[in-house]
Design a protein that fits this description.
The protein is an alpha/beta fold. It has helices at residues 4-17, 26-41, 84-91, 134-141, 158-164, 198-209, 255-272, 278-311, 317-324, 331-348, 377-382, 386-391, 435-443, and strands spanning 21-24, 53-57, 95-100, 147-152, 167-170, 190-195, 242-243, 357-361, 395-399, 425-429. It has one domain: Amidase signature (AS) enzymes (Alpha-Beta Complex). Strand 2, helix 3 and strand 3 (95-100) form a beta-alpha-beta unit. The chain is globular. GO terms for molecular function: asparaginyl-tRNA synthase (glutamine-hydrolyzing) activity; glutaminyl-tRNA synthase (glutamine-hydrolyzing) activity; transferase activity.
Length: 445
């Protein structure tokens, strides 16, 4: 494990070169490291994350450090308390070293709009980083920290992970506390994790949830938003049944993912695989996306309308336009869609009566270069991630292509896309509240 001082130096130097860092938390990290040393001197047992450095997306509060949201907009005073998700990692011995740059207020999947500018992709500066948790992904991809926190409302952990060649995990909706995390759309927001090593990610998740079952938070800031009743998914007795319905041989996005699945599942799992649920999955996804569009736009507008009159001009143009897109949605229409969303989530769980996991592409197509982004790019990035925010199911994106060991620092000379392979990833999805089983399954692939 790299020393804290070397990590802090890397984050302060190369991390800022990548434009991935908004503040470095040197004093906090050193204080916590000292306490760990004192525990060891007193003969206390080591904790599971002792000495593990981690980064925190800058929409998550850490006391004594500004939460910028990647914005020039002022959303209140600097926090005096730390978000529980950070405190839980600290109690297990982890050391927070940096707040990370992100898409402004988490509102965008490309990572193209922040008051601090774009994060640089350590795999290849020409490639889009994905968003909104761009900076957290970059610090992990560049090898500066082994672990980072992000948030995921439509893929904002999994998509940057796929674009930057690392592991990204979105837990079951409601499993991780979101207090002290500035919301985008509370009906979908989830705190997620980045790592290069799955065992570390799994241990960090275990620390955060503490063995709890089911939702652990009150419905976030919009009063009256109901929470769907959710139950654990199918039992994993024997060979798990894996659904491959969204890996279509004729679909260019699926080719590499399908080859990977056939190689890694093994003969017994392939015998239990099914592709018979395409129509049902497509129906669930199409219904859910309509609810997502109304609910997300309404909730985001309600959260930001307090800032619009005095600070509207301070927003990034694209983010400003997205926020205003919710201003004409009637509350009654919103409430109706929330109720329908909850019904969909409850009824969709029966999908796992006969299936244990799904494997899908992580994004639609290759990772796009910055200068190739167009009107349809966001939809392609979210095609496979967004549905599982809508349904609330846990999902992991896992790199299967270009080796992350090749990640470059911002100080290295740029390479063309032709000379550096683009990262490729798959997504593995499980039933709600099967998070640890999902991570165990992925670890065995």
């Amino acid at each position: 494990m790299q020393s804290l001082e070397r990590t802090l130096a890397a984050v302060e130097g190369s991390g800022r070169d990548l434009n991935a860092v908004t503040s470095v938390m040197s004093d906090r990290a050193r204080t916590l490291e000292r306490k760990t040393a004192e525990r060891a001197s007193a003969g206390q047992p080591a904790r599971s994350l002792d000495g593990v450095a981690f980064a925190v997306k800058d929409v998550i509060d850490v006391a004594g450090h500004p939460t910028t949201m990647g914005s020039k907009v002022s959303s209140g005073p600097d926090p005096s308390t730390t978000a529980p998700v950070v405190s839980l990692l600290e109690r297990a011995g982890a050391l927070p070293v940096a707040k990370t740059n992100c898409q402004e207020y988490s509102y965008g999947i490309l990572g193209d709009e922040s008051a601090f500018g774009r994060v640089i992709n350590p795999i290849d500066p020409a490639l889009c980083t994905g968003g909104s948790s761009s900076g957290s992904a970059a610090l992990v991809a560049a090898g500066m920290v082994p672990l980072a926190l992000g948030t995921d409302t439509a893929g904002s952990v999994r998509v940057p992970a796929a674009c930057q060649g690392i592991i990204g995990f979105k837990p079951t909706f409601g499993a991780v506390p979101t207090e002290g995390v500035f919301p985008l759309s509370p009906s979908f927001d989830t705190v997620g994790l980045f790592a290069r090593e799955l065992p570390l990610l799994a241990e960090a998740f275990k620390v955060i949830v503490g063995g709890r079952q089911g939702p652990t938070r009150a419905e976030a800031s919009l009063a009256g938003t109901p929470t769907a009743s959710r139950t654990p998914g199918a039992s994993l007795a024997g060979t798990p049944t894996v659904d491959l319905s969204l890996l279509k041989p004729a679909d260019e996005s699926s080719t590499e993912a399908l080859t990977w699945a056939e190689h890694h599942l093994g003969e017994s799992a392939l015998a239990a695989a099914t592709s018979a649920n395409f129509d049902r999955l497509t129906h669930l996804i199409e219904r859910g996306i309509g609810f997502y569009d109304i609910v997300r736009r309404y909730e985001a507008y309600v959260l930001h309308k307090q800032f619009l009159d005095d600070q509207g001009e301070q927003y990034q143009p694209g983010v400003w336009a997205k926020i205003l897109a919710g201003q004409d949605i009637a509350e009654a229409d919103y409430r109706s869609n929330v109720a329908s969303l909850d019904e969909l989530r409850a009824s969709a769980e029966s999908f796992f009566d006969d299936v244990d996991f799904l494997i899908t592409p992580a994004i639609d197509g290759e990772v796009t270069e910055w200068d190739e982004l167009g009107p349809g790019s966001a939809a392609k990035f979210m095609r496979y991630s967004l549905p599982f925010n809508v349904l609330g199911w846990p999902a992991v994106t896992l790199p299967i292509g270009a080796a992350i060991e090749g990640a470059m620092s911002a100080s290295e000379p740029a390479m063309t896309a032709a000379s550096r392979a683009k990262p490729a990833s798959v997504q593995v999805v499980g039933p709600p509240h099967s998070d640890e089983k999902l991570l165990e399954f992925v670890a065995g692939l």
